[in-house]
Design brief:
There is one protein chain. The protein has one helix at 183-208, and strands at 3-6, 28-38, 48-52, 58-62, 67-77, 91-101, 105-116, 120-127, 131-135, 139-145, 148-154, 165-175. The protein has 209 residues and is mainly beta. The strands form 2 sheets. Strands 1, 3, 5, 9, 10 and 12 form a 6-stranded mixed β-sheet that branches. The chain has a 6-stranded antiparallel β-sheet with strand order 4-2-6-7-8-11, with no helix packed on it. The longest helix is centred in the last third of the chain and has 26 residues, at 183-208. The radius of gyration is 26 Å and the shape is elongated.
Length: 209
C-alpha cells in the first residue's frame, strides 16, 4: 500500500497514486468541495475552537488500495482547567464532507469531546469508526479521522491554539465505480436480440409449412 501526504499549505494540490511495477490500474480523481466541523461552543462541556486547515476545494487521485492523509483542522480550548461539574461531560462533534467529483456525494463522521481530570488535565477527542461513502456504480471511498489529545497541562489546561491538536483525515479508495452500459447501447443490443428471435421463429414456421 502506498501512502501519500497532501500538504495543506498547497491550495488545490493533487496527490496521484502510482501503479505498482507491471500493473495497469485505473485511478479515480476526487475533489473535496467543502467540509464543515460541528463542535461544542458553549457550556456545559469544554468550550472549543476550530480552525480549518485544508484548502477548499482540495483534490487527490487514488487507485484502489491507495490512501491520502491530510491535516483537516486544529482543535483547542481557551479554558484553563477542567471543571468537574461540567467539563468532563461528553459533547458531540462531527465533520460533514461534500465531494464535487467524480460526482456529488458525501457523508459525515461523528465523535465526542470531553475533559479529563487528574495529575494531568487535557481535552480528549474520540471518533466513531471509519465511514464508507458510496459514489457512482459500486464506488467506495473510506474516510477515517484520528483521535487526539489537546491542551494537556499539569494540574490544569494549557489553554490556547498553540497547545491544541491537529486533526488528520484519511481517505482510502476501497472500490472504483464500474462503468454502466449506455442506454442507447443497451437498446441496440436488445433490438439485435429481438430480431434474432423473430428470425428464428420465421425460420421454424417455414420449415413446418
Amino acid at each position: 500500500m502506498k501512502t501519500m501526504m497532501l500538504k495543506a499549505a498547497i491550495a488545490g494540490a493533487v496527490v496521484t497514486g502510482t501503479a505498482l511495477a507491471g500493473a495497469a490500474e485505473a485511478a479515480t480523481s476526487f475533489t473535496l468541495g467543502s467540509y464543515d466541523v460541528n463542535f461544542n461552543e458553549e457550556d456545559p462541556g469544554l468550550v472549543l475552537n476550530v480552525k480549518k486547515l485544508l484548502p477548499e476545494p482540495a483534490s487527490a487521485t487514488l487507485e484502489v488500495g491507495d490512501h491520502v492523509i491530510v491535516d483537516l483542522f486544529t482543535l483547542w480550548t481557551d479554558e484553563s482547567a477542567v471543571n468537574k461539574e461540567d467539563d468532563t461531560s461528553k459533547k458531540d462533534i462531527s465533520v460533514d464532507f461534500d465531494f464535487s467529483a467524480p460526482e456529488i456525494f458525501g457523508g459525515s463522521i461523528s465523535g465526542e469531546t470531553f475533559g479529563v481530570r487528574g495529575f494531568f488535565q487535557a481535552g480528549k477527542l474520540k471518533w466513531d469508526d471509519p465511514q464508507q461513502f458510496l459514489f457512482g456504480n459500486g464506488g467506495i471511498l473510506e474516510v477515517s479521522l484520528f483521535d487526539e489529545t489537546f491542551n494537556k497541562g499539569l494540574f490544569g489546561l494549557k489553554e490556547g491554539e498553540d497547545y491544541g491538536a491537529t486533526v488528520e483525515a484519511k481517505f482510502k479508495l476501497i472500490a472504483e465505480s464500474q462503468d454502466v452500459p449506455e442506454p442507447a447501447l443497451m437498446l441496440g443490443l436488445g433490438s439485435v436480440a429481438a430480431a434474432a428471435i423473430l428470425a428464428g421463429k420465421r425460420s421454424r414456421k417455414e420449415e413446418v409449412a
